[in-house]
Amino acid sequence: FDLTGRVACVTGASAGLGQRAAIALANAGARVVGVARRADALDDWVARTGANAAAVAADLSQRDQIADIARRITEPFGAPDILVHAAGINTREAADDVTDAGWDVTMNLNLAAPFFLSQALVPAMKAKGWGRIVNFASLQTTRAFPAGIAYGASKAAVRSATQSIARAYARDNILAYIVTPGVVRTRLSEQ
After folding, report:
1. Which among 52, 62, 59, 56 is positioned nearest to 28, based on CA atoms?
2. Which residues, at least 6 apart from 55, have a Cβ–Cβ distance to it below 8 Å?
3. Is there a contact between 87 and 18 (Cβ–Cβ < 8 Å)?
């Protein structure tokens, strides 16, 4: 498929499935902005990808920073047409050990960031009359793991939120999808 002329943004682009998605979009001709916390890994990805790649080092779990992150995403190539939310965290806390901090960072990064970042970037998609939002879920969307309560809850909520986003914006030719991969060897799955 040819994405020449399109701008994409991929969260979690420093490693794993996010980086693979960023590579695939760039290989298809899109200009891609990768977002992640690890600036060094993003810089390596940009160096390998070339002029059609740019990086925004940011912590998406900081909800009060989403508006600024959205602004920074638009600087290299303009507002994205395609938004892929692959950033995620799994604190792997057992039921008796779930902490407020673990719960909050998981919900902020896995659930709140995709919604609020999409909300910030959708107006430009509406203005163009075209947009695509892709949210990554997990096997834990529908399968429970005792040491992943916050993660599983966040990914189940991502599924529901994606369905609502799809219905909310379909009339504007903004389509929302959920990708639910099986077990994939990444930094997250090795933790």
Report:
1. 52
2. 13, 33, 34, 35, 36, 39, 42, 43, 45, 46
3. yes
What's the pTM?
0.92
Alpha-carbon distances, residue 169 vs 15, 69, 118, 131, 142 (angstroms) = 29, 22, 11, 9, 25
Q: Answer positive or negative: Cα dihedral of 170, 175, 176, 178.
A: positive
Continuous segment of H or E residues that includes residue 120? helix 113-128
CB atoms within 10 A of CB 42: 25
Residue 99, pLDDT above cutoff 60: yes
- The yes-or-no verdict on residue 55 having pLDDT over 60 is yes
Is residue 151 part of the annotated active site? The answer reads yes
The C-alpha atoms of residue 2 and residue 113 are separated, in whole angstroms, by 28
Number of neighbouring beta carbons within 10 Å of residue 20: 15
Single out the catalytic residue among 151, 152, 169, 188. Answer: 151
Q: Are 93 and 102 contacting, i.e. CB atoms less than 8 angstroms apart?
A: yes
